[in-house]
Amino acid sequence: SRTQNEGHPKWFVLGVGQVIKGLDIAMMNMCPGEKRKVIIPPSLAYGQQGYVQGKIPPNATLIFEIELYAVNKGPRSVEAFNQIDKDSDKKLSELEISQYLKEEFARDGKKRHPSVHDEILADIFKKNDHDGDGFISAKEYNVYQHDEL
């Protein structure tokens, strides 16, 4: 939501419950650059309870206009973790993630205020460094557990 995200696109992992089920379903098989208008029934949105924080009433049918900007492998894949983990110590430091973000920002070529990088980096650690040790372990990073990590 550009409205709720101060004009910036919302990035999330599709299919793991980071958004309502209706959006997970609606965005399957979308291609970068594709736009869709979707109508999501209450059963695939917030149902009978609604969503107080977002002021969505109970049994609301939601309408979204979606534009998919990009699709990336991961970001929660083993391959992505190993790419970020430059020193191969099986944990991601602030420096490693910072460098990865800089590379990703350079790759997409969009102009961003420098504070965006710091805000995203802080948010990543706030949401993923569960044990507060200043690193994101393979277990903390991955949406799904992998035996190989």
Automatic annotation (TrEMBL):
Location of the EF-hand domain: 72-107, 116-149
Protein name: peptidylprolyl isomerase
MF annotations from Gene Ontology: calcium ion binding; peptidyl-prolyl cis-trans isomerase activity
GO cellular component: endoplasmic reticulum
Organism the protein comes from: Cathartes aura (Turkey vulture)
EC number(s) on file: 5.2.1.8
Family matches, as InterPro entries: EF-hand-dom_pair, EF_Hand_1_Ca_BS, EF_hand_dom, PPIase_dom_sf, PPIase_FKBP, PPIase_FKBP_dom
EC top class, as a word: isomerase
Keywords annotated in UniProt: Calcium, Endoplasmic reticulum, Glycoprotein, Isomerase, Metal-binding, Repeat, Rotamase, Signal
Pfam families: EF-hand_7, FKBP_C
Domain (PPIase FKBP-type): residue spans on this chain: 1-72
Catalysis performed (reactions): [protein]-peptidylproline (omega=180) = [protein]-peptidylproline (omega=0)
